[in-house]
């Protein structure tokens, strides 16, 4: 995955897809020729090495398609509702937090381009679990301290600015 992302940083998407497809074709073609030679030498009748994969049912039927589309639409609608709520300032505190997040993202965006962010994200996704597993106790202690400090600061700010308190939602 990292190799593909680095390739996309250097080459066009079309070139990367073409090279990857050519590499896959080379591997499968070489394997098929190797198996045919081995069958001829050993005089065995094993058949096509990819027969199992050639027989897979890969067609999309209506039930599978509708299930996936319903799931995608459910997530899309929830995202659009949340963005509408944030952009139209339904809750002042949440919209301010969202604005601060967007402001931070403008700085991150000025430091890195999109491909660098994607590459860094992939590296982080595969290294953070191991780091957390190794240093779980220390990380949990520091997160607890940070959370308590954040809650103290939030309480102080809300006591001085009462209009920032979240309103209880009617159930």
Which helices and strands, and how do they pair?
Blueprint (H helix, E strand, L loop, with lengths): L1 H9 L2 H30 L8 H4 L7 H26 L4 H20 L2 H21 L1 H25 L11
Helix pairs in contact: 1-6
What characteristics describe this protein?
171 residues; 7 helices; elongated; RTN1-4; transmembrane helix; membrane; Reticulon-like protein; endoplasmic reticulum
What does this structure look like?
- The chain is mostly helical.
- It folds into 3 domains: 1-57; 83-112, no CATH class; 114-163.
- The chain has 7 helices and no strands.
- The longest helix has 30 residues, at 13-42.
- 0% of the residues are buried.
Over all CA atoms, what is the radius of gyration? 27 Å
Please count the beta strands (DSSP E, at least 2 residues each).
0
Number of domains: 3
The shape is elongated
Low-confidence stretches: none
Classification by helices and strands: mainly alpha
| N-C termini distance | 46 Å
**Would you list the SSEs in sequence order as H and E?**
HHHHHHH
Strand content: under 5%
H/I helix tally: 7
Q: What does the main sheet amount to?
A: none
Subcellular location: Endoplasmic reticulum membrane
Domain Reticulon: 1-171
Main location: endoplasmic reticulum
Organism: Acanthosepion pharaonis
Summarize, please.
79% of the residues lie in helices and 0% in strands.
């Amino acid at each position: 995955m990292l190799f593909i992302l680095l390739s996309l940083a250097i080459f066009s998407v079309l070139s990367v897809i073409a090279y990857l497809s050519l590499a896959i074709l080379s591997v499968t073609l070489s394997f098929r020729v190797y198996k045919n030679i081995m069958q001829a030498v050993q005089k065995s009748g094993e058949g096509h090495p990819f027969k199992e994969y050639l027989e897979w049912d890969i067609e999309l039927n209506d039930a599978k398609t509708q299930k996936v589309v319903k799931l995608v639409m459910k997530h899309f609608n929830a995202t659009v509702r949340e963005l509408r709520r944030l952009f139209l300032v339904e809750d002042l505190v949440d919209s301010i937090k969202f604005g601060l997040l967007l402001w931070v993202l403008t700085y991150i965006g000025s430091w890195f381009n999109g491909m660098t962010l994607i590459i860094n994200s992939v590296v982080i996704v595969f290294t953070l679990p191991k780091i957390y597993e190794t240093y779980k106790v220390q990380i949990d202690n520091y997160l607890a301290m940070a959370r308590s400090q954040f809650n103290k600061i939030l309480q102080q700010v809300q006591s001085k600015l009462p209009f920032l308190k979240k309103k209880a939602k009617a159930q």
